[in-house]
Write a structure and sequence with these properties.
7 helices, alpha+beta, about 180 residues
């Protein structure tokens, strides 16, 4: 039933070069399933990119409705969310989701530590894509500064390029829709 994938970018309010990235998979019935790679915070812990370098947090994949993942960012954290339609066939999209779900199961039995540079939300997405299409996403500073990763995805034609990038970005902002369809 998996038909398409969207790339979601959530820039940090205090530092727009940094961002959280996620994927959202569109199903044939119109539902969307989101996948977010995150730190697993224990009671009393707070995330900061600097402490994310210290091997302090475990990594986890959150699989949830797209609506829930977006609303946490737009309503509770007051962040902008940009959703870009990916360019992939249903078969490629299905293979991506299957690879992600394999990793979810792998982490259940073999936990890993989160690292703000090498084992984070964006690097995990890159690893999944490059596993299925080796070399598709090259090493690039925009992977390390994911607030710019949407521009990299645009240049690599991983997302829709039918509009100039700035117009595509303007239209990709989903905050108003998220608030409208609570």
């Amino acid at each position: 039933d998996v038909q398409n994938v969207d790339y979601l970018v959530v820039p940090f309010n205090e530092q727009r070069a940094l961002a959280h990235t996620m994927l959202s998979f569109g199903l044939a019935d119109g539902d969307r399933v989101g996948v977010s790679v995150e730190v697993r915070l224990e009671e009393g812990e707070e995330y900061h990119p600097a402490t994310g370098l210290l091997g302090q947090f475990e990594i986890m994949y959150v699989v949830a409705s797209e609506r829930d993942l977006i609303r946490v960012r737009t309503e509770h954290r007051k962040c902008d969310v940009y959703a870009y339609r990916g360019i992939s066939t249903p078969q490629q999209t299905q293979a991506l989701l299957v690879d992600i779900l394999r990793r979810v199961n792998q982490l259940r039995t073999k936990p890993e530590l989160y690292d703000s540079i090498s084992n984070n939300c964006t690097t995990n997405i890159v690893q999944h894509i490059n596993k299925l299409a080796p070399g598709k996403i090259p090493q690039d500073y925009r992977v390390l500064l994911p607030g710019f990763s949407d521009q990299l995805a645009y240049e690599l034609k991983l997302i829709d390029t039918s509009l100039p990038f700035e117009e595509a970005k303007r239209r990709a902002r989903v905050n108003d829709l998220a608030l409208k369809y609570r």
